Amino acid sequence: MKTKEIVYAALFTAFMAVLGMIPPIPLGFIPVPVTAQTLGVMLAGCFLGKKPAAMSLILFIVLVAIGLPILSGGRGGLAPLVGPSAGYIFSWPIAAFLIGYASEKIWPKLRMWKLLTINILFGVLLVSLIGAPVMALITHTSIWAGLIGSAVYLPGDIIKAVIAAVVAFQLRAISPIEEKAH
């Protein structure tokens, strides 16, 4: 990785921490709150590209693991990484990598609807398909119940996917993907 990509990865790690300062919205019927941090995952992927995006989220998880309270609600340490949110958190680097990979592939013919589709597929659906079953296993409920319960996140996650696509599309001229494309 180039120095510039490392700096971008570190900046997006910091951005994820800032998004963690936005208070979570707890839901009484599901143990994982609604947070703004999935916006950061999608934005990292479609702005940075696959490697820097994945690295920024891996670094973020390492910082959480060592105890920094940078998850939404001021959570940090190992507890969130083995609790009901674990599947969602560990899906973030995978989602960021896949969003970045797909964004790099479509970059020469970039369209807003393509970025939105990528964000919905990998930033919304994939995160839910990994996070919900892990949450269900940890809370000793059926996987089907976990998937049905996670449907409550879909409207907000789709809004975050739209925001990430719009921002990345508007900032495409300064994206590290743009430099790779030329």
Automatic annotation (TrEMBL):
The keyword GTP-binding does not apply. The chain crosses the membrane at residues 7-23, 29-48, 55-73, 85-103, 115-138, 144-169. Pfam families: BioY. Gene3D superfamilies: 1.10.1760.20. It comes from the Bacteria. Keywords: Cell membrane, Membrane, Transmembrane, Transmembrane helix, Transport. The keyword Secreted does not apply. It is found in: Cell membrane. InterPro entries: BioY (IPR003784). It is a multi-pass membrane protein. PANTHER family: BIOTIN TRANSPORTER BIOY (PTHR34295), BIOTIN TRANSPORTER BIOY-RELATED (PTHR34295:SF4). Belongs to the BioY family. This is Biotin transporter. It comes from Paenibacillus vini.
